[in-house]
Design goal:
Number of strands: 4
Helix content: 40-55%
CATH architecture of the largest domain: 2-Layer Sandwich
Radius of gyration: 22 Å
Strand order of the largest sheet: 2-3-1-4
Number of helices: 13
Largest sheet: 4 strands, antiparallel
CATH topology of the largest domain: Alpha-Beta Plaits
CATH superfamily of the largest domain: Transposase IS200-like
CATH class of the largest domain: Alpha Beta
Order of helices and strands: EHEEHEHHHHHHHHHHH
Oligomer: single chain
Amino acid sequence: MCRVVFYGRKPRDKTPDTVYHVIARGNNREALFLSDKDRNSYLELWRKYSREFEFEVYAYVLMTNHVHWMIRTGRVPISSIIHTIHGRYARTFNKKNNRVGHVFQGRFRSEICSDDRYVLALCRYIHLNPVEAGIVKKPLEYPWSSYKDLCGLRKDPLVKSEFLLGYFNRSGVTGFRRWVEEETTEEMEQQHNICGVSNKLKPSNGNKEKKLIENRPDLKKLAEDAAGLFKMSPDELKSDSKLPSCVAARKDFIRRAVLEYAYRRSEVARFLKKDRSLITKVLYG
């Protein structure tokens, strides 16, 4: 479980070398950015202070009235980083637009990304924000996120791509893009829950998926089919054997279960009595 570090007036965690999910919203749900010039000015502050405060940015998205960041802190606490950047931006924004008052709503929210499951769900959630909002159809079409940088199509020194791409080993950018773009509605809802977001997507194909789940074969039957195809027993398929036939049978079972019949990776991992990372590696490795 991820430890929550926010709200009220409790002191924030000051542990260095920590990966955080940072969320900040416009005051009274008002716009944080009125033009592309505003967005560029905001990002330039992040570039400046990432060098000065020695923190790393792994992912971000700038929406109209809120922002998400995934960063790793160094010697400077998370509160000092965000207060400095947002304070500078708010003063510039107010002066430019001849306004007074708060630009950001209260204290920012931050959560520690304490496990790989959170990091991967957050990465996907951040980059699909513009898609869920109906602004674009694909994350690559949105210019105000780190997605193009992580896909190797833009080289902003602000974004350190090695951290997230490292999860996908040899598949690199290809595996990363599959992870973000090829998901089920159920996975979308799970990532909202993992990332602490209450609003869920309303799937347009919900009846189709519900019918699929109701009529799908159970995992035992899928394992028997895969084992029979490779002329072995289901117990051999579930074993730790590295024989080519056993490895191929497991891959066939995993891919059919997750991609064809929409089983959760966690369900398949429990059935096989394996770590969930094996399922992810088979699908995207």
